[in-house]
Write a structure and sequence with these properties.
Elements (H helix, E strand, L loop, with lengths): L4 E3 L7 E4 L5 H7 L7 E5 L5 H4 L2 H10 L6 E5 L3 H12 L7 E5 L3 E5 L3 E8 L2 E8 L8 H6 L6 H7 L3 E3 L5 E3 L12 E5 L6 H7 L3 E4 L2
Parallel strand pairs: 2-3, 3-4, 4-5, 11-12
Antiparallel strand pairs: 1-2, 6-7, 7-8, 8-11, 9-10
InterPro entries: RibonucZ/Hydroxyglut_hydro (IPR036866)
Protein name: Ribonuclease Z
GO molecular function: 3'-tRNA processing endoribonuclease activity
Length: 210
């Protein structure tokens, strides 16, 4: 079974790869996804079905001239596997490759999302929490208060509050349509549900891989 998939948040060009099967690169090309937008790769285990396409993808990124860093997260042994693969193929990458060992808890903290790892029966489950999206800024309301486009707009949109010299209070929540609540995604790679998995799944979108 193919456990590889692509994850991307709306309004954010970078993509995350969960595992890297041999066919994943062909799928990326067929869907006209920009390969250079791969920001992070998460390997759930070292089964051949999950890593068979990893070295090929890394080499392709090198061949298209990638220069920005790439972060890969995986279980112990992933770094050794990649070192042996590079040595065998006589390949070196022009970009910096960071290898992170998966552990229980927060593994990725980004302004747009956070990713947590939970050990479940000797495998890993993942919880992605997308940040709350600011609502649409009501420009007409800002104009009514004689406010002009600038840094103040973005701060009000984020919900900041300001007190003007004349004592007038500008509350950012009054200048935007309601914010969108951050979405939770739970990726389960083991059919055995632990109590911790059930707790993490509350109010989450669930993807189960067996």
């Amino acid at each position: 079974m193919n456990n590889s998939f692509i994850f991307r948040l709306n309004h954010y060009k970078d993509i995350l790869l969960f595992n890297c099967s041999e066919s994943l690169q062909s799928y990326i090309i067929s869907k006209q996804i920009r390969m250079n937008n791969v920001a992070k790769i998460i390997i759930t285990d070292l089964h051949i079905r999950n890593i068979s396409g990893l070295l090929g993808l890394l080499s392709s990124l090198n061949s298209i001239g990638r220069i920005k860093d790439l972060h890969i997260y995986g279980p112990r042994g992933l770094s050794s596997y990649l070192d042996l693969g590079k040595k065998y193929s006589h390949t070196n990458f022009k970009y910096i490759l960071y290898i992170h060992t998966l552990s229980n808890g927060l593994i990725i903290k980004h302004e747009k999302y956070r990713i947590y790892t939970f050990i479940n029966n000797y495998s890993f489950d993942f919880l992605i929490i997308a940040s709350e999206l600011a609502g649409t800024f009501i420009i007409q309301k800002a104009n009514n208060h004689y406010l002009y486009p600038g840094p103040l707009y973005s701060k009000l949109k984020k919900g900041s509050t300001f007190i003007l010299p004349d004592g007038l209070i500008l509350n950012g929540s009054n200048f935007t349509i309601s914010n969108s609540e951050g979405i939770k995604f739970n990726f389960i790679f083991n059919s055995y549900y632990s109590r911790k998995s059930i707790q993490n799944n509350i109010k989450s979108m669930i993807l189960l891989y067996q």
